[in-house]
């Protein structure tokens, strides 16, 4: 199992105070990585979970819509943990409304967090990784990178953009030792999907479409991220890994 070990590696996970981000941070720590944990909210609980596994953790904060924050986060991860081998771009947001009622403000806000900040984080971490000749970047896409969804036009557009950005960066960086890939989670029990979970009709429709017969838990997705961050994925570039209980095959 050494090809899946992250011993000696340092990861930075954005949006990791809870939900999927926290699951990714803990999963990476379980595989051996030290983790810089970022969010706008306090990240103490996630850091404690990482440290409980015998790994180092650094708490980072900042609003990713501020163009200066990504470079600062990379600097702080380097100064706090001494290296940066892995970046997981998890931070994101969703605003639900019919397309005809979606304001410019809401549309652009979602794209800024879900897409523009992902590019800035990739650029900031990528410069460091390219100089070292090694690194792993995992962007968090969605099933809506492939489908349009309902009542989430900005979210679908942003996640489609994340998938294409992942491929574009992989085309440039694969030959320079930096793997850029993405994970596309299916329907997961998180705060972002609370409205869907609470809607008995939509929730039932979703479960009926999933061959696995249930919503995912955050722990179901973390293994895919660990794989894409590990030596086992050394020849995987520009891939969007779907972890969806079989949804896309239905």
CATH topology, what is it called? Rossmann fold
- CATH architecture descriptor name: 3-Layer(aba) Sandwich
Number of domains: 1
Order of helices and strands: EHEHEHEHEHEHHHE
What fraction, in percent, of the residue positions are helical?
A: 40-55%
Number of strands: 7
How would a textbook summarize the main sheet?
7 strands, parallel
Cα distance, first to last residue? 32 Å
CATH class: Alpha Beta
Task: Sum up the overall morphology in one term.
Answer: globular
Average pLDDT reading: 97
Low-confidence stretches: none
Number of helices, counting only DSSP H or I runs of 4 residues or more: 8
Q: Which structural class fits the helix and strand makeup? A: alpha/beta
Could you tell me the strand content as a percent range? 5-15%
CATH superfamily: NAD(P)-binding Rossmann-like Domain
Adjacency order of strands in the biggest sheet? 3-2-1-4-5-6-7
**What is the C-alpha radius of gyration, as a whole number of Å?**
17 Å
Task: Jot down its keywords.
single chain; about 250 residues; alpha/beta; Rossmann fold; seven-stranded parallel beta sheet; 7 strands; about 45% helix; about 15% strand; globular
């Amino acid at each position: 199992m050494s090809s899946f070990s992250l011993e000696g590696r340092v990861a930075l996970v954005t949006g990791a105070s809870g939900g999927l981000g926290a699951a990714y941070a803990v999963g990476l720590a379980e595989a051996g990585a030290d983790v810089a944990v970022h969010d706008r909210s306090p990240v103490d609980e996630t850091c404690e979970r990482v440290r409980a596994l015998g790994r180092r953790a650094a708490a980072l904060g900042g609003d990713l819509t501020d163009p200066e924050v990504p470079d600062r986060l990379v600097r702080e991860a380097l100064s706090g943990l001494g290296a940066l081998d892995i970046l997981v771009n998890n931070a994101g947001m969703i605003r639900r409304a019919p397309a005809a009622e979606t304001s410019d403000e809401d549309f652009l806000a979602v794209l800024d967090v879900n897409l523009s900040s992902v590019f800035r984080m990739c650029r900031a971490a990528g410069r460091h990784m390219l100089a070292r000749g090694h690194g792993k970047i995992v962007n968090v896409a969605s099933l809506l990178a492939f489908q349009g969804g309902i009542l989430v036009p900005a979210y679908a557009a942003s996640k489609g953009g994340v998938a294409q950005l992942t491929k574009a960066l992989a085309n440039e960086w694969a030959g320079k030792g930096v793997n850029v890939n993405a994970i596309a989670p299916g329907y997961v029990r998180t705060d972002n999907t609370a409205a869907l979970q609470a809607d008995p009709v939509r929730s039932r429709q979703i479960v009926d479409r999933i061959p696995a017969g249930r919503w995912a838990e955050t722990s179901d997705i973390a293994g895919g991220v660990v794989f894409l961050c590990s030596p086992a994925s050394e020849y995987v570039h520009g891939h969007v890994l779907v972890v969806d209980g079989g949804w896309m095959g239905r």
